[in-house]
Design goal:
Helix content: 10-25%
Number of helices: 1
Oligomer: single chain
Strand content: over 45%
Radius of gyration: 18 Å
Structural class: mainly beta
CATH architecture of the domain at 23-90: Sandwich
Length: 138
């Protein structure tokens, strides 16, 4: 499916790789999104996953805040949609380490040195469920 009219991510500009489906942002990194129309309203589905900063009416800066997927909706001054796109935020190079100490789980991001990683509530729930299953022998 082609991107909506008026939308061109900086990664799709000549000399950069195109984004296959939606917008991919690396955790704790920023990505420039250029619009051909002026944005009046910017909506992020889940601000724990991604954040948008308006640089000017036609330039947004997306920042990966947490791992997962959400969406970005941009409206013009008349309330008409300019963009409705999926955003996927992932780790860079998958350099993560998860340490299990009985019921305690610690997740580290190792780029280049290991330090505690930020986890979204969904990730925390998943980790708790795995730990509970391991504790009960399931």
């Amino acid at each position: 499916m082609p991107p909506p009219s008026g939308y061109m991510p900086a990664a799709a500009m000549p000399g950069n790789e195109a984004i296959p489906a939606g917008i991919h942002v690396v955790m704790n990194h920023a990505k420039i999104v250029k619009l051909s129309s002026a944005a009046a309203t910017v909506i992020i589905g889940n601000p724990e996953i991604a954040d948008a900063t308006v640089r000017d009416a036609q330039t947004l800066v997306l920042t990966g805040r947490g791992f997962g997927q959400t969406n970005l909706v941009i409206l013009d001054a008349g309330g008409n949609p300019i963009l409705d796109e999926r955003i996927a935020v992932s780790r860079e190079n998958g350099a993560a380490l998860r340490i299990y100490r009985q019921a305690e789980i610690e997740t580290l991001s190792c780029e280049p040195f290991c330090e505690k990683a930020y986890l979204t509530e969904a990730e925390l729930q998943s980790i708790r469920a795995i730990a509970e299953a391991n504790d009960t022998g399931n």
